């Protein structure tokens, strides 16, 4: 019996397959672009490796695309064919894939935690638990999970640096910004290709309103994310946000055109980077040209997807941004239907915060700012359940705030800004300061001051 890079027994029999399996695991931790190549080689050499098949299925589910569910189902069939020859730890991965395919990613998390109770050194289970919790908006759970297994990751553990990167992100998402910054820097020192840890520190700078320091942090560290899959676009997105906060619009557009949308994919994560950045620009009254067009065309083809409410809401940004009323209405109706007809984990999120958010974004696109604010502010308290990070969800907070300003709801908007500041440890970025100035001006003229509508 051979052991993997983390010292765990595996049911693999070929040394070359073990090398590829180790590369797959390390690649997942590093968000490496080469990971699928190693997975293909592994399953070509040992197609009966049930753990590898189960992970293939979960990797496809993490992509959040309805057309990939059938591939995950095929992977489950292959994994179950090897169930009897799999080790007890490996079987739990198969069970996790099966329960996830039934509509319960929360059940897959429970299986990962079951693994970690007896195999806390299993860095792949740690990362999968972290990743699934991320798409479900469970920041507190991410932090608890990481902190439970930390004692098992000695400095010589191959996954130690990546564990620290995950810890840094969980700390940041739960408001421990100083600790997050320290952990993220330690992560990158131990694992120089840990893009997740590097980006956790970028999040800290975003949440503490220090764009200049964020740009300094990213300066000279491109090697930490150049090797990545499409996650590299997300790191460029963070850099663009920093330039935007500093009013450096030419740099924002340069990053958008040459890095963030360098490849015109319809991966929901890439769409979310692009749509949220364009919307931020548009809310600031900046003309984004024809950049909405390709995003809205891609998003119009995803209206029936329904894998993740986070993805759906960003498709809506693109559709509303380019005034595609028919596709917008189709997507909003589908979200409301899923909320009523799907009893699974994502159906619950379609119901809350999905329905109110979707109706609010549709109203905002139609110029109905009173209706938009009523819907969006209703979803404000549960927005985290949409998944993603504080920085990613902030575009929806900005739309809510701007809808309130345009509707003349100055007191309510001030409360939202105060809540936003509290979540950021008392810090405010230039977006918030500009909106507070609008509130002051509105009250000073004794009228409902509004931000310019596009």
TrEMBL record:
Signal peptide: none annotated. Keywords: Repeat, TPR repeat. The keyword Repeat applies. It comes from the Bacteria. InterPro entries: TPR-like_helical_dom_sf, TTC38. Coiled coil: none annotated. Gene3D superfamilies: Tetratricopeptide repeat domain. Belongs to the TTC38 family. This is Tetratricopeptide repeat protein 38. It comes from Parasedimentitalea maritima. The lineage of its organism: Bacteria, Pseudomonadati, Pseudomonadota, Alphaproteobacteria, Rhodobacterales.
């Amino acid at each position: 019996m051979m052991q993997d890079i983390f010292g765990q027994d595996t049911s693999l029999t070929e040394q070359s397959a073990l090398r590829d399996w180790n590369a797959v695991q390390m690649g997942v931790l590093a968000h490496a672009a080469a990971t699928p190549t190693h997975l293909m080689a592994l399953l070509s050499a040992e197609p009966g490796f049930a753990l590898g098949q189960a992970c293939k299925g979960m990797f496809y589910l993490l992509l959040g695309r309805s057309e990939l569910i059938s591939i995950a189902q095929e992977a489950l069939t292959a994994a179950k064919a090897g169930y009897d020859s799999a080790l007890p730890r490996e079987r739990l991965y198969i069970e996790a894939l099966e329960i996830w395919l039934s509509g319960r990613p929360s059940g897959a998390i429970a299986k990962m935690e079951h693994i970690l109770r007896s195999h806390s050194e299993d860095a792949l289970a740690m990362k999968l638990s972290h990743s699934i919790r991320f798409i479900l908006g469970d920041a507190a759970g991410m932090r608890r999970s990481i902190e439970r297994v930390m004692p098992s990751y000695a400095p010589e553990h191959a996954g130690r640096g990546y564990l620290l990167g995950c810890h840094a992100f969980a700390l940041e998402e739960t408001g421990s910004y100083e600790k997050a910054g320290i952990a993220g820097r330690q992560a990158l020192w131990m694992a120089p290709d840990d893009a997740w840890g590097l980006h956790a520190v970028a999040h800290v700078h975003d949440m503490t309103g220090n764009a200049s320091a964020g740009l300094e942090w990213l300066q000279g560290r491109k090697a930490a994310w150049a090797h990545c899959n499409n996650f590299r676009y997300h790191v460029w997105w963070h850099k663009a946000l920093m330039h935007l906060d500093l009013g450096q619009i030419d740099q924002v557009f340069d990053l958008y055109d040459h890095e963030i949308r360098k490849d015109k994919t319809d991966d929901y994560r890439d769409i979310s980077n692009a749509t949220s950045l364009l919307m931020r620009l548009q809310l600031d009254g900046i003309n984004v040209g024809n950049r909405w067009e390709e995003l809205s065309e891609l998003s119009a083809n995803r209206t029936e997807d329904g894998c993740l409410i986070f993805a759906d809401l960003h498709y809506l940004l693109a559709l509303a941004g380019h005034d595609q009323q028919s596709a917008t209405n189709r997507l909003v109706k589908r979200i409301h239907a899923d909320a009523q007809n799907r009893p699974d984990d994502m159906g619950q999120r379609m119901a809350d915060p999905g329905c109110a958010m979707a109706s609010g974004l549709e109203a905002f696109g139609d110029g109905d700012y009173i209706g938009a604010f009523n819907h969006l502010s209703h979803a404000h308290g549960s927005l985290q359940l949409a998944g993603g990070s504080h920085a990613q969800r902030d575009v929806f907070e900005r739309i809510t705030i701007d809808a309130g300003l345009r509707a003349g709801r100055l007191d309510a908007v001030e409360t939202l800004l105060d809540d936003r500041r509290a979540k950021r440890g008392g810090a405010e970025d230039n977006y918030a300061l500009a909106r507070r100035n609008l509130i002051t001006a509105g009250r000073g003229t004794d009228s409902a001051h509004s931000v310019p509508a596009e």
